[in-house]
Amino acid sequence: MKNLLTLLHFTVLLVFIVSCSSNQHNDENDTSFIGENVSFSANQYSLMIDKIEDFANLVNPKSIIDGEMKYIPATEWTSGFFPGSLWYLYELTGDEKWKPLAIKYTEALDSIQYYTGNHDVGFMIYCSYGNGLRLTGNEAYKNVIINAAKSLSTRYKPAAGIIQSWNANKSNDWLCPVIIDNMMNLELLFEATKLSGDSTFHNIAINHANTTIKNHYRPDYSTWHVIDYDTNDGSVRHRNTHQGFSDESTWSRGQIWGVYGFVICYRETGNPVYLEQAIKSAEYVLNHPNYPEDGVPYWDISADDITDTYRDASAGAILASALYELSTFSNDRDYKSIADNIITTLSGPEYRAELGENGDFILMHSVGSLPHNSEVDVPLNYADYYYLEALKRKKELENK
Q1: Which one of 181, 300, 312, 384 is the catalytic residue?
Q2: 128-150 tens-digit pLDDT
Q3: Distance from the Cα of residue 325 to its chain's centroid
Q4: Burial status of residue 90 (CB atoms within 10 A of its CB: 0-12, 13-18, 19 or more)
Q5: Which residues contact 137 (CB under 8 A, 6 or more apart)?
Q6: Can you tell me the distance from the alpha carbon of 171 to that of 149, in angstroms, rounded to the nearest whole number?
Q7: Crossing angle for the helix pair 81-93 and 2-52, nearest 10 degrees?
Q8: Has 27 been annotated as catalytic?
Q9: Which phi-psi region, left, alpha or beta, contains residue 178 (left: φ > 0; alpha: ψ -120 to 50)?
Q10: Mapping DSSP to helix (H, G, I), strand (E, B) and coil, where does residue 206 land?
Q11: Residues 49-84: tens digit of each pLDDT
């Protein structure tokens, strides 16, 4: 009996040691995966910085079109993503060299805090100044965020309960077009209320989210891209999917903007209605028969000839980042593992560029707007931004 107990104790101890070793090995693999991809991203962006810093004027890179770098002005909707990526590289690497660069390219957007030409000041200011404030505590950045929220609020239409995205467009017969992307700009408003104490911004965000739930989604929780409103009575004039295959199809990035946006709304309010909307709109993507096993969506989930069309790495990166945060709020599914699958695919040779190639962007194969033959199968600065954000969120989850 004594020998049997000794053998039993030895076996239990051996299992414990093997288990600890296995867990340590898995942790090391996860750390190595994140570390290697962060290191690559930093090296790639170092090459890009070396090139653009040679310009006499400050430039903001967006993509590679016909082999040439596409630079954008401060007023272009994606201008906040490059400085935002520099902030993430500073945070992820701990390398001080990134901080002055992030500050420089962020503060080049100073005038955007007063820009009222479209709804995208949330993207432009919060991805740049928002990350800058979070990482440096620079008091001046608070006023920039508040002023940007005031600018965004000028586009709020009380009768319809929404923030107008684009200006009226006669050719499309749009009076007040609102796109699902606009859900992403609500984070700026929530933050402005926290910084200023003015609840106006928070209330506008809530009204916009509630109206979006009411009008932007089909019964199966897929979304139209554009809803056109009558600003006198708030009625819906048109439902379109401007950047998708057809009006009744589901443009992938738009669907995923909605997932991400409602995760934000739940984080900021705790209202379970927003969590349910985030989950059900995510499940629409994840359960769709055209959703690929490797996790990177086609540019439109319901496009014809789906297997012969383009994937959209930007949609995959945004989805991965959204699912990492959703995993902290819901145990309905293992959303973290789903996000891990996406980010592993994006980090493989099919999507991650070789060092010094792809215009020194990180990810290949994104799609801006296929129906308009705009930025098709190219790198995009927002794909890189959300890829780095996803790595950051993965790292935070695994270091708890």
Answers
A1: 181
A2: 999 999 999 999 999 999 999 99
A3: 11
A4: buried
A5: none
A6: 30
A7: 140
A8: no
A9: beta
A10: helix
A11: 999 988 878 999 999 999 999 999 999 999 999 999
Buried b (16+ CB within 10 A) or exposed e, 226-256: bbbbeeeebeeeebbbbbbbeeebbbbbbbb
Res 10 pLDDT > 60: no
d(CA 18, CA 6): 18
Distance CA 164, CA 171 (A): 17
Amino acid at 360: D
> For 336-359, b where at least 16 C-beta lie within 10 A, e where not — what string?
bebbbbbbebbbeeebbbeeeebb
For 346-389, the pLDDT digits (tens) are: 999 999 999 999 999 999 999 999 999 999 999 999 999 999 99
- Residue identified by tokens 């090995």 is 25
pLDDT at 26: 42
Residue 303 is predicted with a pLDDT of 81
Percent composition of the chain: helix, strand, coil (DSSP 3-state, to 5):
60, 10, 30
Residues in the chain: 400
Do 43 and 345 touch, CB atoms closer than 8 A?
no
Q: Which of 110, 118, 127, 178 lies closest to 152 in space, CA to CA?
A: 118
d(CA 47, CA 211): 44
Active site residue 384: no
CA distances from 95 to 38, 194, 356 (A): 12, 30, 20
Under a CB-based contact definition with an 8 Å cutoff, are residues 141 and 212 in contact?
Answer: no
Which of 310, 318, 317 lies closest to 245 in space, CA to CA?
Answer: 310
**Do 356 and 339 form a contact (C-beta atoms < 8 A)?**
no
User: 50, 54, 110, 120: which one is catalytic?
Assistant: 120
- Kindly give the pairing relationship between strand 68-71 and strand 156-157: unpaired
Q: Are 97 and 116 in contact (CB under 8 A)?
A: no
pLDDT tens by residue, 175-208: 999 999 999 999 999 999 999 999 999 999 999 9
| 239 DSSP β-pair partners | 227
Average pLDDT, the chain: 92
DSSP single-letter state for residue 212: H
Residue pair 208/158 in contact (Cβ under 8 Å)? The answer is: no
Whole-angstrom Cα Rg for the chain: 22
First to last CA, the chain: 43
Strand partners, 226: 179, 240
